[in-house]
Write a structure and sequence with these properties.
single chain, about 260 residues, mainly alpha, 2 domains, about 70% helix
Length: about 260
């Protein structure tokens, strides 16, 4: 543990610069440095982090991410009537489950809303959309893992909360761009119109990121509810709004502190 790790924990518990000033410190990081100096600790040599975590558990999770695509493609190829519904359930579960979002009395509302949004979209646009979303699960999983690993590396290398925020924002935007390109590619392969599939896939991807990194559910739920409005631009507006929220929430060090 280092001072920035302590600062992230303080931030996660609502300690602000104003609170730190009561203890004669200019900001939270200064307070964290004193706590670090007062606490017993051992030097730990850190290995260079991998871009995407490896190991049996990581490969198993990636295997799970491939299941929605396999299920949707197999059911669609067999001409099964339940192909769309099965893909919707698999996509919603894979993209937003499990989450550790903070706050709220109803922990699964965001997950249920995601399933409703996916089901409503597939009902309107057909099974090919479900296939396209299912195919986007695997690149979404890899992009989310790469973002988590990259954010952890930047957290370890930063020496102030603002420094980490400046490093985390470009990483998030780069991951979003990469995932958007991947979603457009798989949507084209599935024969789904890009203006329909890509904003929806991006909305689910941002939902997954926010829930996995402990963000509050209210903005996520509001964006998903907006996506249910039967207007073509609703999903795009929901994804854009959630991206703004993600840039703010995921650039906080507390979103990446070790549990």
């Amino acid at each position: 543990m280092d001072p920035l790790e302590i600062a992230a924990g303080l931030e996660a518990h609502g300690i602000t610069d104003r609170t730190a000033a009561r203890f004669r410190h200019r900001d939270v990081f200064s307070l964290a440095e004193e706590l670090y100096a007062r606490s017993p600790h051992e030097a730990v040599s850190a290995a260079a982090p991998a871009l995407v975590p490896a190991g049996p558990a990581a490969f198993r999770r990636f295997g799970y991410a491939l299941l929605p695509a396999a299920l949707a493609c197999a059911a669609a190829a067999a001409g099964q009537e339940w192909a769309g519904a099965a893909a919707v359930v698999a996509v919603a579960a894979a993209l937003v489950w499990p989450g550790r979002a903070a706050g709220g009395r109803f922990p699964y509302v965001a997950h249920l809303l995601a399933a409703v949004v996916a089901g409503w979209a597939v009902h309107r646009h057909g099974t090919t959309l479900a296939v396209g979303l299912a195919l986007a699960v695997a690149p979404g999983h890899l992009a989310a893992a790469a973002f988590a690993a990259g954010a952890r590396a930047r957290l370890d290398a930063s020496r102030a909360l603002e420094d980490f925020a400046d490093r985390a924002r470009p990483l998030l935007l780069a991951v979003v761009v990469v995932f958007t390109a991947a979603a457009a590619t798989v949507a084209a392969l599935a024969g789904t119109p890009l203006p329909v599939a890509v904003p929806l896939a991006l909305l689910f991807f941002l939902t997954r990121l926010l829930l996995r990194h402990g963000a509050h559910r209210a903005p996520v739920g509001a964006a998903l509810a907006l996506a249910l409005v039967p207007v073509p631009a609703a999903v795009l507006a929901a994804a854009a709004g959630l991206l703004v929220h993600a840039v703010l929430a995921l650039s906080r060090a507390s979103a990446h502190a070790r549990p």
